[in-house]
Amino acid sequence: MTPTIAASALTAADRCDRCGAQAYVRAVMPTGSELLFCAHHWNENRVALREVATCIHDESARLAEVPATASLDER
């Protein structure tokens, strides 16, 4: 099992290596290189990546956070 570690936070500037969307997961390979994934591409590839990555930093739970929105009265 590949450990999930606490690493430096991913920011909006971190982009998925597959599609360019905001990255929420960082997978570090045995060579030390990092792969960044959006939640969609992480979900597509997580089984294979967990087998080869030395560590994984997963912030995809942030997607469940609900942003503040304006009330209907303010429109």
Q: Could you walk me through the main structural features you see in this protein, from its secondary elements to its overall organization?
A:
By secondary structure, this protein is an alpha+beta fold. The protein has one domain (1-64). 19% of the residues lie in helices and 16% in strands. The protein contains one helix and three strands; from the N terminus they run ββαβ. It has a three-stranded antiparallel beta sheet with strand order 2-1-3. A hairpin with a 5-residue loop joins β1 and β2 (34-37). The radius of gyration is 15 Å and the shape is globular. The protein starts with 24 loop residues before the first strand and ends in a 17-residue tail after the last strand.
Short précis:
This protein is of the alpha+beta class and 75 residues long. The chain has 1 helix and 3 strands; from the N terminus they run ββαβ.
Count of structural domains: 1
Mean pLDDT: 88
The count of β-strands is: 3
Instruction: Give the helix level as a range of percent.
Output: 10-25%
Strand neighbour order, sheet with most strands: 2-1-3
Task: Label the overall shape.
Answer: globular
Question: Which spans of ≥5 residues are poorly predicted at pLDDT below 50?
Answer: none
Major β-sheet annotation: 3 strands, antiparallel
Gyration radius, rounded: 15 Å
What is the terminal separation in angstroms? Answer: 50 Å
As a percent range, the share of strand residues is 15-25%
The SSE order reads: EEHE
Q: Total number of helical segments? A: 1
